[in-house]
Every structure is written in C-alpha cells, then in structure tokens.
Amino acid sequence: MRFLICLLINVLSVFVVKAQYSPDELNIDLQTGDLLFCSPTSGELSKAIDQVTQTGKETHFDHIGIVDIHNDTVYVLHAAPSKGVCRETLAHFFYSYKEKVIISTYRLNDKYAKAIPAAIKKAYTLLGQPYNYSYILKDKGMYCSEYIYEIFAADSIFILNPMTFKNPQTGEFLTGWVDHYKKLGIPIPEGEPGCNPNGMAASDKIEMTGEVVIDNKALKSKW
User: Fold this and answer.
1) pLDDT at residue 134 is higher than 70
2) What's the CATH code of the domain at 197?
3) How far apart, in whole angstroms, are the C-alpha atoms of residue 45 and residue 70?
4) Is 3 inside a domain boundary?
5) Domains contained in the chain, number
6) pTM higher than 0.70, yes or no?
7) pLDDT tens across 140-182, in order?
8) Of 3, 39, 49, 175, which is the most exposed, with the fewest CB atoms less than 10 Å away?
9) DSSP for 7-73?
10) What crossing angle do the helices spanning 116-125 and 144-151 adopt, rounded to 10°?
11) Helix (H, G, I), strand (E, B), or coil: what is residue 3?
C-alpha cells in the first residue's frame, strides 16, 4: 500500500510539473526552431563559461537548446553534461534546474527561418551523442552550443571563433577552467575554434522574443 501511495504521488508530481511549466501556464509563444538560452547557475564551471564568453551585447548565458513542437507537445533538444545530446519535454527541461534561472527565447529572422526544418531533422540524428567535456570540436560528443552550431552548419547560421578561457580583466586562466582541464588531463585549448551561447545570442540572424524566470519554488513570467 505504501508503495502504491508513493507511486501515485510521483505520478501526480509529474502532472503538476507538466502543468506548471507548460507554454500556456508561462504565457510563452514558442515555435519549432526557437532557441532557449539559459542564464548561468551558481556552479563554478557555469560561471566560468559566462565570464569568458562575454560580447558587446552583455548577455549572460551558459546553455542553449532548440525547440521542436510535435503533436502539440513542446520538446527541447540539447546537449547537457549529465545527459549527452537528448530530447526532453519543456516541463522536464525547466524542472531540471534546481535553482532560479532566466530562460530567454530567441527566433531566427524570417530570412533564415527556411533553415529550421533541415536543422531539426539533423538534430534528431545526433541524439544519443555523449557530452563533449573538452569543448574541442574534433573530440567525441557535443557540448550545447556545438550541437546547435552543427545542426545549422549547412546554412551557415552561426560561426566559430577562437575560444578563450582567460579572465578578460587579468588575462589569466580562470580557476574553474584550470581545474576542469586538470581533471581531464589535457592542456587548456586556448585559441582553438569553438562557439558559445553568448556568442550565438549576439548573432544578427536571431532576435530575442521574450524571457521567463524559472524557479522550482516560485514561477514568474515576463514578456
């Protein structure tokens, strides 16, 4: 009996999550091909990603995914450290955050929207790839912005730039990156080609359409 009660609670919790984080509840106007840019969390590596990838637009993102709406269900396809390249419902994508984050939505300009169908098709062929912890493009797996870059590569929507892992103020490698590559046992790939969420958000081929604050304890939307 106790097992059945626990199971029922878990099932009901899933339904609550799906309702709480549905586009209608959040007042989000999403379309297939929309990009979700996520603000950094309190983790050391998350903050390090944001700090070394700043652009003139002063966005603050450390993660990106793409929306696919299928049979009225909103999915997010993305590459995450604990999951690799995966597809999740919008609700589970939001619910995976254990602290408050800001999710900003971006949409390709009309001129480039024709690239979306092929990009989504390619996105599905890459599901199951492991996460690329080295952030080196030639290495196995994919990191979040590499995944988005790759699915749009045929239409040259995004570009690669030399990566840097240095504090822009001091010119020294950030501690988070030093520790990360020390654990991997490889040199920091300073200057190698790569991409990142902040750089992609600065593209003139996409426009921000809104943002929503996601909090497991309190949910607010702003448009």
Assistant:
1) yes
2) 3.90.1720.10
3) 33
4) no
5) 1
6) yes
7) 999 999 999 999 999 999 999 999 999 888 999 999 999 999 9
8) 3
9) HHHHHHHHHHHHHHTSHHHHT----TT-EEEE---SSHHHHHHHHHT--TT----SEEEEEEEETTE
10) 130
11) helix
